[in-house]
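Reminder to self: tokens first, then the designed residues, so the page reads top to bottom the way the pipeline ran.
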């Protein structure tokens, strides 16, 4: 008796056949060693921003050098998934995104969003992401345009300046609001600018006095601003002083009393915003291979030479060190989290 063709196969048998085929394919793929899986493959670095800005700069440089360290030497491209301050990309890599190691998340400060934002918008668990490590920390600085007539910490405390930011969930807004309270400053913060480029333009036009900008966004894209003294930088928002600005204090140094815990909570998220991760269900051997590749890139002379030429900061943290910082945020006490929420979203 001839075998029934798929055309006349009952619907449930067709579905079963398709599922069996897909399962067999997935099983074969997951059984491949890392070198076999990545050979002749195109993978992507996924970031939760539009093209441009400091994330794009780091993403392109990493794409140029990481491939050489991965078994099989895959081609690496950049993929953008903007939305919700980076949470959209985090949600994707955690859930519906492929769990085979073909997509690497260049993370935003996901643990901070997990604790501070509307839980309905957060569908990832930061501690379950498989962190490869961090290549630096997002070094945001308080930049003030030269024509604003201000540029010192005392000016921040006495002048009624206007600063800009992106969404209220963005670190550019949160750092400004926390600094205002920690320093007893008088400036106002207006949110709603769509990109860092829009904020830079607003600063040049005199619409705002300044904003909390990622250092690379001006050190790389606006080198003339630094060289010509077009911006003053009285304050930085990092765990330690920046080697590029050794005489500029951190907000963590200046914060006193209960505000210090709030500042430290936010500062612990700065390395995570310069970290890479894989989805929670990527096979362990591929995770191990990618962690080894990431660490190798951090000491690769060609990579370090390019980052130095581009004036990009590099401060390597291992996967274990990165996860420890994630845990500090995610495991923080509810009372501290409540105080941080009040600090970043006070009555304006």
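Designed residues (348 positions):
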């Amino acid at each position: 008796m001839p075998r029934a063709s798929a055309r006349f196969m009952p619907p449930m048998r067709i579905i079963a056949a398709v599922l069996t085929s897909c399962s067999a394919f997935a099983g074969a793929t997951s059984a491949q060693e890392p070198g076999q899986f990545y050979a002749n493959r195109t993978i992507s670095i996924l970031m939760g921003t539009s093209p441009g800005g400091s994330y794009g700069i780091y993403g392109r440089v990493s794409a140029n050098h990481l491939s050489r360290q991965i078994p099989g030497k895959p081609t690496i491209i950049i993929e953008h998934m903007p939305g919700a301050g980076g949470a959209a990309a985090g949600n994707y890599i955690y859930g519906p995104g492929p769990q085979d190691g073909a997509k690497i998340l260049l993370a935003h400060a996901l643990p901070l969003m997990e604790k501070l934002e509307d839980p309905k918008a957060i569908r990832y668990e930061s501690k379950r992401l498989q962190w490869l490590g961090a290549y630096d920390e997002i070094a945001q600085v308080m930049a003030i345009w030269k024509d604003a007539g201000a540029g010192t910490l005392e000016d921040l405390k006495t002048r009624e300046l206007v600063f800009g930011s992106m969404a209220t969930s963005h670190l550019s807004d949160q750092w400004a609001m926390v600094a205002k309270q920690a320093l007893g400053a008088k400036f106002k913060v207006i949110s709603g600018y769509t990109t860092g480029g829009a904020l830079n333009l607003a600063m040049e036009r005199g619409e705002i006095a300044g904003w909390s900008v990622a250092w690379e966004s001006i050190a790389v894209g606006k080198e003339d601003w630094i060289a010509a003294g077009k911006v003053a930088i009285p304050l930085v928002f990092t765990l330690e002083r920046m080697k590029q600005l050794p005489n500029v204090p951190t907000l963590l140094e200046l914060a006193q009393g209960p505000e210090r815990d709030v500042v430290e909570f936010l500062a612990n998220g700065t390395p995570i915003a310069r970290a890479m991760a894989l989805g929670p269900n990527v096979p362990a051997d591929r995770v191990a291979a990618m962690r080894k590749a990431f660490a190798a890139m951090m000491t690769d002379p060609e990579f370090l030479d390019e980052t130095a030429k581009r004036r990009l900061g590099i401060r390597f943290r291992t996967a274990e060190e990165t996860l420890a910082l994630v845990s500090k945020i995610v495991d923080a006490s509810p009372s501290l989290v409540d105080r941080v929420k009040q600090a970043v979203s006070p009555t304006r």
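The longest strand covers residues 231-237.
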